[in-house]
Design a protein that fits this description.
Blueprint: H1 2-25, H2 32-66, H3 68-92, H4 123-154, H5 156-185, H6 188-199, H7 201-213, H8 219-248, H9 251-270
């Protein structure tokens, strides 16, 4: 039963990319202010849950397993190891294809429809970018799905905030996949499909976690995974989400979104105290 619940939590987190694609396709243009607030909100959620919940959970597990001093050291190493891991992934993915480094889509060519309601040949480049964005997003979602699955297996009070954080984080990424494909093809269904498909990497990560990690799960493994995930979330927030939020709208909008995200997570975590 716990395993089915863990899969369900991972599926919810992954399919939230579909929410992002729907919100993007409801309007003719990407709303810069909406993106600024939502990206700031996502960063606030991830920073708060990482520093207040995940890091402390990692430290508690690892100190119990290794002892106080060594456990604290392993926690710090896992935290910064997560940052190093995600930074290497971002370096390997060109910025034009990186789902976290979204561009101002209205400034790109290929957005005007022809007399038949289709987009011109220039849209092929935009389509190529959208498809590779979907692929890159799937690569990012895979370890997130594994972390969500493992969290849900151990502790509900930790799993739900992680699911909320990752789901909110995936919504603007869903926008990043759907919008360029829609502007390139004029096909809303195709744009939604690829965005939805990229989110399925989350439950796929859960399957891998179940088949490979489950026999080896213990307090040390949970602690290291929590620490690594906390590092990944903090790095993405500061390196990618917040800068992107400022680019899409006024500086204060991203800060307001950040504070709102922290507040929402603070309240949600208090519900499980």
């Amino acid at each position: 039963m716990n395993i089915l619940f863990a899969f369900a939590m991972t599926l919810i987190a992954g399919l939230s990319t579909g929410i992002g694609s729907l919100s993007a396709l409801l309007t003719k243009k990407t709303n810069g202010k909406f993106l600024a607030v939502s990206l700031g909100f996502s960063a606030g959620v991830m920073i708060y849950v990482s520093m207040i919940e995940l890091f402390q959970a990692a430290q508690a597990s690892l100190e119990h397993y290794f002892g106080g001093r060594k456990g604290s050291l392993v926690t710090v190493l896992a935290f910064f190891g997560g940052m190093l891991f995600i930074s290497l992934i971002d370096k390997l993915i060109p910025s034009e294809q990186n789902p976290h480094e979204m561009k101002s889509l209205e400034e790109k060519p290929g957005h005007a429809k022809d007399s038949e309601g289709r987009f011109p040949e220039q849209g092929k480049d935009l389509l190529h970018t959208g498809l590779f964005t979907a692929l890159a997003l799937a690569l990012h979602n895979f370890p997130e799905g594994m972390a969500t699955f493992v969290s849900a297996l151990q502790d509900l009070s930790v799993a739900i905030p992680v699911v909320v954080a990752i789901a909110i984080h995936n919504i603007p990424e869903g926008i990043a996949v759907a919008v360029p494909i829609y502007f390139a093809t004029g096909n809303r269904k195709k744009a939604f499909f690829y965005s939805f498909l990229s989110g399925l990497a989350e439950p796929l990560g859960a399957v891998v976690g179940f088949l490979i990690l489950l026999p080896f799960l213990n307090e040390m493994v949970f602690g290291i995974i929590y620490g690594v995930v906390a590092g990944i979330m903090v790095f993405i927030s500061f390196d990618e989400l917040l800068p992107a939020a400022r680019e899409y709208g006024e500086h204060h909008l991203s800060v307001y979104g950040l504070v709102a995200g922290m507040l929402v997570m603070a309240v949600s975590l208090l519900l499980f105290v």
